[in-house]
Write a structure and sequence with these properties.
mainly alpha, about 375 residues, elongated
Length: about 375
């Protein structure tokens, strides 16, 4: 028994130290499944490997690897119609993903970013596996499957949001790939005439919102124009590809499912809209600024012309018509006096004929009566 324990310990040390490079590249293998009588050895082996993983990033790597194995176990148990074991494998999957996320909380900033990026990448790949398992899982395990999907999606979104706080460009790159993958998954479902294709497209709304948040964060926090442009370009590349894919999906789904796909397209296009609006705003601001400068220059020019003209006229008047110039200066200094109106009492005017009356009326009006 002691020899067996020693062999297991040495094996764990070799694996944890990274001697087996092939394991990292290999596809997830279920290995021992929950229906095996020695399944407890699988848990023991994993705990030993975690013990000899000496930093948070390595532990998170292992947790994500174990999560993939649990998905493979769930798929195999579903194919064999072993409901209870499907539920158990899916529950273990949730635990592994959640534990991988918590590793980021205790890591330093560099390792934290690496962990969050790996969690986001891994969980985005799990979506397709969970969708595949959905077609095989027994009815009893459907609830467990839905919980696993929620954990996977939540883990993906939270990892992207946390990554964007200090590593916006890396978050934009991963988010773009996630959006593309979700659109591709919707297309695969549509090709199989799966009625959940529209629902999968609708889920894109959550990831479109994350992409919007990343784009807004870039506008607020990134001062370097080149970096901001790269972030926008990466998000735009992902959303453009998803847009193309969803338009193909729109042609394949039944009429009753099309409104959901159209809403998904609107959500995707919304990610690009802030960029377009921002560019328009910059152009308008620049144009307004240019117009304000030109208007101010024109006003100054007109004022200068008026001043010059006024002075030129004064000089010309002074030189050619000195008497008039002196009179103008005098009038500028003296207040203007208006002649007082002459009041003529109507009773003192003797009206003899209509013709004379008209003349007197006109004369009265002329003199201001």
């Amino acid at each position: 028994m002691k020899k067996l324990s020693l062999i297991l310990l040495i094996g764990a040390l070799l694996i944890a130290s990274g001697v087996s490079a092939q394991e990292e590249e290999a596809a997830a293998d279920p290995g021992l499944t929950p229906d095996s009588p020695v399944y407890f050895l699988d848990d023991f082996w994993k705990s030993v490997r975690l013990t000899f993983a000496f930093n948070a990033e390595r532990k998170a790597d292992l947790r994500l690897r174990f999560a993939e194995e649990k998905l493979a176990e769930a798929e195999k148990m579903a194919q064999e119609n072993k409901e209870e074991h499907v539920e158990r494998a899916l529950q273990r999957y949730e635990e592994q993903v959640e534990d991988a996320q918590t590793r980021a909380e205790t890591a330093n900033e560099e390792r934290r970013a690496a962990i969050l990026e790996k969690v986001a990448e891994a969980t985005s790949k799990h979506f397709a596996v969970l969708e595949r398992v959905k077609d095989q899982v027994p009815e009893r395990a459907k609830e467990a499957l839905e919980r696993a999907r929620e954990v996977s999606e939540k883990g993906n979104i939270e990892a992207l949001q946390a990554l964007a706080e200090k590593h916006t460009e890396r978050a934009a790159e991963v988010a773009a790939r996630v959006i593309e993958r979700r659109a591709e998954l919707a297309e695969k479902l549509a090709e199989r005439r799966d009625d959940t294709a529209a629902k999968e497209a609708e889920r894109l709304e959550h990831f479109a919102k994350v992409a919007e948040e990343i784009s807004s964060r870039a506008d607020m926090d990134i001062t370097d124009e080149a970096t901001r442009a790269r972030i926008k370009a990466k998000l735009e590349a992902g959303t453009n590809q998803a847009d193309i894919t969803l338009r193909r999906v729109l042609e394949q789904v039944p009429l009753e499912a099309r409104p959901a796909i159209e809403r998904a397209l609107q959500n995707i296009q919304r990610v690009e809209r802030p960029r377009a609006l921002q560019e328009i705003k910059f152009e308008v601001d620049a144009l307004n600024k240019e117009q304000r400068i030109k208007l101010e220059e024109l006003r100054q020019e007109r004022q200068e012309v008026k001043t010059e003209t006024r002075e030129e006229r004064k000089v010309e008047t002074q030189e050619t018509r000195p008497q008039l110039f002196e009179q103008i200066k005098l009038e500028e200094r003296l207040p203007i006096k208006r002649p007082e109106p002459i009041n003529i009492a109507p009773e003192r005017i003797e009206v003899k004929t209509n013709e004379e009356s008209q003349v007197i009326k006109e004369e009265s009006l002329r003199i201001g009566y």
